[in-house]
């Protein structure tokens, strides 16, 4: 039984609102806050997102293995 290839991690600097909601588990308002923040200052590490107003960082922390910033 082959499990297949693992899904590529989601780049939060390029993700669409739908991807942020479905893969990262963010609410619509949180994905909007992240998108607004990344247009001014793209994240270099996931920890950079701790300062994003309106974003529940615990959601990012729970999915850390599936999310990246570059």
Total beta strand runs = 2
Order of helices and strands: EHHHE
Share in helix: 25-40%
Radius of gyration: 12 Å
Termini gap: 34 Å
- Envelope shape: globular
Number of H- or I-type helical stretches: 3
Strand order of the largest sheet: 1-2
Report the average pLDDT across residues.
94
The low-pLDDT segments are none
Q: Give a quick account of the main beta sheet: strands, pairing sense, barrel closure.
A: 2 strands, parallel
What portion of residues belong to β-strands? 5-15%
The SS-based structural class is: mainly alpha
Provide tags for this entry:
70 residues, mainly alpha, two-stranded parallel ribbon, single chain
What report would you give on this structure?
By secondary structure, the protein is mainly alpha-helical. The chain is 36% helix and 6% strand. It has a two-stranded parallel ribbon. The termini are far apart.
Short description:
The protein is mainly alpha-helical and 70 residues long.
Helix-strand blueprint:
Layout lengths: L9 E2 L5 H6 L5 H13 L16 H6 L4 E2 L2
Parallel strand pairs: 1-2
């Amino acid at each position: 039984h082959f499990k297949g290839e693992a899904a590529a991690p989601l780049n939060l600097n390029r993700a669409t609102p739908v991807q942020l909601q479905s893969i990262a588990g963010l609410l619509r308002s949180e994905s909007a806050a992240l998108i607004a923040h990344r247009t001014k200052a793209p994240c270099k590490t996931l920890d950079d997102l701790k300062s994003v107003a309106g974003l529940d960082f615990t959601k990012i922390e729970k999915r850390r293995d599936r999310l990246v910033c570059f």
